[in-house]
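Students often ask why we bother encoding 3D structure as a string. The short answer is that it lets us treat folding as translation between two languages. Here is a chain of 499 residues written in the first language.
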Amino acid sequence: MAYNLPCVQSFTEHKSKHTENKSSINYAGRYVKDLSEEELLDLEELNLVLDGLGPRFKDWSGREPLPIDADLLPSLVEGYKRPFRLLPYGTRPGLRDKEMTFIRRTARTMPPHFALGRNRDLQGLAVAMAKLWERSAIAKIAIKRGVHNTRNERMAEELKRLTGGTIVSRNKDYIVFYRGNDFLPPNVTKTLTKAQELSINRQEDEDKAREKASTFIDLTTKNAVKGPLVAGTLAETMAATSRWGSGPDSEEIERMRRESAVARHTSLVKLLENKLALAKGKIKKAERVLAKVQEYLRPAQLPTDLETLTDEERFSLRKIGLSMKPYLELGRRGVFDGTVENMHLHWKYRELVKIMVERKSFAQVKHVAISLEAESGGVLVSVDKTTKGYAIIVYRGKNYERPKEIRPKNLLTRRKALARAIELQRREALKYHILELSKRIEKLKSELEDMKMIDEVDEETLRSRIEDDLGSESESDSDDRHETAEDEEAYLETYQHGE
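And here it is in the second language, the structure alphabet:
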């Protein structure tokens, strides 16, 4: 039996709506049956927030709650403006790596808020995202599947331009936005805009008051002055000279120039002294680090019962070693455990090993050759200078027995050897830098004394003297280097033809 009364019809409509909502809640319960009470409350609150943003996407195949269908939101909004942003004092404009990682992990387990299928005209979505950011710091957008010509890159650029948010992650399925550290809620933006408008109005009032006062002052001064004041006239010049005095003389100008030159030189000396103190502190630090690394180095000594070679054997072994194609290259690390290991690996297949070394002086090469002989247990045959550097040839010996551990424990590892080489290079460079700074400081101090004692000497003559002294020093250094090179060649000849 049907009742056509209006009260009965309204009751049936209300009951049907209530049953529909109840069925949707039960449908959502299939997905959230394993969640706790707090998580269920969060989902209900999110559902209420999404209800106030726009229509839902009913074809959503993922978990509840249903996201907002962003394609049904208005494409253009009249009077739309980008959200007002202001960075609070003491906060970073961007996110740190840890914060970005935390937001990405949080967004990974979060249900999407919007479902989007178009690339442009997203002002309605931007307004909804700004409303969502009042309650949540993250806005997650799902890209609709099966929609043609969707490009997540264009979507992300358009939304970033409209909202000013930070793109946290973007892939073919989702786009995640962070509202930013400079995002402000609408209540705060209203108060700030009002305060800004008030300050602008006050500034305009002050400008108007200044204009009125300036016009009044101009009128009073025009009435007070009898004749016009013209700039550049003789009367103005005479008045200025009588008030401020005449200009400086030539002697005073020279004195001022000399004083400025002396002050400039003293400031340069102070700067160089500060650099010298800084370099000395750095060299002390390098020595401390080098001492820590050197603690792990325990070099072996030469054995007393070395195997002797005749002149004929040494000559033939040297000739064979120089003609060998395989060789080991000793780099900046010097002699470490890996070098000795490679020597034993070479001796497994041949009696000789050739090691190429690039060093500046022969004394360094000689020290490397003696250390290789002591650490490996072989016999040093010769040290020759070639086009590629110095060649060290080591013979394994007639009674060679391969040790159980071919990598010695008393030498540095590869990493520590590199650290030692870097600190040595730093120390040598700092020593040279300190020497150059000390020389330059002495030159500048002597120049200052000459400038204070003799007034007639100019800066150009003193600089020319310094340049001449530096040129003579460079020539003497080149002569010393030439002499040391000749001594090395002579020592090489005696070492090759000796014994």
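Translate back mentally: The chain is about 55% helix and 10% strand. Keep this in mind for the problem set.
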